[in-house]
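Table S2 (text version). Query chain:
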Amino acid sequence: MGVSARRRRTRGGIYLLVLGGAMLITVIGVAGLSAARIRRSIAVDEAGLVKSRAQTDSAVELGLRIALSEAGWRASRTSGFWVHNRAVDNGIMCLYAMDAVDGDFTDSALDPVLLTGVGGYGRARFISQAEAFATPVADQSMNYALASAADITIEAGATLSLKRAAVRGGKITVDGAISGDVEAVSVVNPGNVSGTVTSGRDALTLPSAGLYANWASLGTIINSDTLDKAVLAPGYSSFGPANPRGVYIINQNGKNVTVRDSRIQGLLVVQCDTLVIERSNNIAVGRSDLPVIVSLANATKIDMSSSPLSELTNATNYNPAGAPYHGDSDALSLGLYESVIIGVVHATGTLEIKGSTRIRGTVLSKKAVNVQGDVRIDYRDTASFAPPTMYTSATPGIAFSPLSWRRAFGLPANPNPADPADPQARAQGHGVTQ
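Corresponding structure-token output:
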């Protein structure tokens, strides 16, 4: 091979070496540019995520501000989007609010509210949630074991035993005995009171307006004037379909209604001439935001025995499926149940309590109260710090539970299947998936 041929090969090799080096430099440069773009994209996404998170927190806080500042919001607003795709700082913000119990803001002023904020900035999306709880102020009547807007009489030979709270009324006449404290406009025979006697108090005004209308809108009607060996609970009714809230309504205007040897877990609302609750009964509130008995009868008479409610004696199963007792249901009829009323009892007419009646809660009467026999009322302080709906002195406030703040990955399912709003479908507009 000649010298010229070798020189051509050398020049060709140098050319290839230079070309390869140039390509390598080009690849390195392109890779560097790509890495810079990736770093910039990551930085932009991180900044967007920070901004979108700030927007979600702002949305949740906006929901609380609406609930605090807008009078009557539970009646005017529904579960769903309160704010939808609002432009904020070159991004978007959404607020989804929902009654956390049943999807219905109107049925209870005490139901917690689940607030979900959605923030979007560029490609970033963030969702935050927090629960806001009602902060009710109890009506002053909720601080007493027995409270009447009228006079109270303890008949001769009768004993009213109170635990953890006083009796409050207009003129209280103690011909028998009261074991506990007394507060009243005036007291007759104060020497028959074992506790502290405070006279000169103003007469109480009890909540009563709209009681029937409020509960009737939530309840299931029972077309009977007698509950005998009956069972009523959120998941069971001896009279047909059960009410999921355990609210049952009896409307027998002009007639008398009798409840005997029965078990009720929930709220019984009765409108009639005279309501009689007699013999052995186990009647307990099912939910903290409900009273246990609301009697709109002209006269209410409670004359209960201290003997247990017996399945064997009455040939009745009082804890069937759907109506568990302390969490247990069975098909047997061998159990015993304490004869007691637990919760807030409210009578808008006259009230007579006699026999060996035992009540754990608060008893209210708009009109005169007459006590006979050996009656005991053990006050439950839940009435003062978590009063039932309609037994508050002002519209409940609302506040966040600090521990409820959390990141979410979609909108909550609406607990009310009758609500036509579909959170998942409506969320597509801002890129939220469930």
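Notes on Table S2: The first helix runs from residue 3 to 69. The two ends are 76 Å apart (CA to CA).
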